[in-house]
Amino acid sequence: DILVWKDRAGGNWWLQVGGYNVGYWPSYIFSDLAHSASAIMWGGEIFSPDAGQTSTHMGSGHFPNEGFGKASHIKNIQVVNSSNCLNPPSDVGLITERNNCYNVQTGNYGDWGTYIYYGGPGNNPNCP
Ligand SMILES: *[C@@H]1O[C@H](CO)[C@@H](O)[C@H](O)[C@H]1NC(C)=O
Q1: Ligand 1 pocket residues where CB is under 6 Å
Q2: How far apart are CA 45 and CA 16, in angstroms?
Q3: CA distances to 87, 116, 119 from 13, in Å
Q4: The Neprosin PEP catalytic domain covers which part of the protein (predicted)?
Q5: Whose CA is nearest to atom 7 of ligand 1?
Q6: Domain containing 4: what range?
Q7: In this structure, are 23 and 83 located in the same domain?
Q8: Tally of structural domains, the chain
Q9: At 100, which helix (H) or strand (E)?
Q10: Model confidence pLDDT, tens digit, residues 110-126
Q11: How far is the CA of 86 from the centre of ligand 1 (A)?
């Protein structure tokens, strides 16, 4: 479990992993995030200096449509509101720059809540 939230008293952004507070980002290092966030992103990111020609895997290296046991996923996606309560995200958009290299799918189902499958192999015959 990964949780990021803003401490209302101190204004710092805290990171909790597996129930343990790992540390925080002091509020003074932020400008746009000083009071709150207006958007939140989950997923993966690959950087290549040669504009996309990389076989670096994102996630497990499998595409989202390969599903559970193959593709990487994030489940129970929730958002902390200004009352420090968790809520399902209200408006989930998907961003992918080269969907033959890496892709993403979202859904909402049972105890998984809002989830995404994401990733891919990078360079492949359809991703030159
Ligand atoms: C935060 O979420 C809780 C639980 O859904 C809700 O009761 C509360 O009104 C929300 N607070 C704000 C400021 O939206």
Answers
A1: 81-83, 85, 87
A2: 21
A3: 18, 24, 27
A4: 1-128
A5: 85
A6: 1-38
A7: no
A8: 2
A9: none
A10: 999 999 999 999 999 99
A11: 8
Task: Look at ligand 1, atom 9, and give the residue with the nearest C-alpha.
Answer: 83
Distance CA 82, CA 22 (A): 22
pLDDT in tens, 35-46: 888 899 999 999
pLDDT tens, position by position, 54-100: 889 999 999 999 999 999 999 999 999 988 899 999 889 999 998 99
pLDDT category, 52, cuts 50, 70, 90? low
Is residue 3 domain-shared with residue 56, that is, in the same domain? no
Q: In this structure, are 82 and 117 located in the same domain?
A: yes
* pLDDT attached to residue 36: 87
**For residue 89, how far is its CA from the centre of ligand 1 (angstroms)?**
12
Prediction pTM value: 0.87
Phi first, then psi, for residue 25 (nearest 5°) are -100, 120
Residues 91 and 50 occupy one common structural domain: yes
